[in-house]
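Extended Data, record PAZ domain-containing protein
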Amino acid sequence: MHYDFLPCLQVGSDQRPNYLPMEVCKIVAEQQYRKKLEGQQVSKLMDSTCQRPSLREDNICQIVEQNDYNKTERASEFGMEVDYRPTSV
């Protein structure tokens, strides 16, 4: 395992949970989630997807700054530098 710091995914049922490391799981292209979402899940989904573009941009910039990617070991290893300003098109 290379990413033992990542959380595991529950792939079993609630009655018989089975946990697998993320790095051994694959997401199937265009797979649909067919179960009905609970009220709180619907609310969170709507809150996260129905944001004004300017608010979404501000949130993304804040997350990028908090993660401080330029100071990570991986960025140093590969000589990468992350620009915290969004690209304008």
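Summary. The mean pLDDT is 87.
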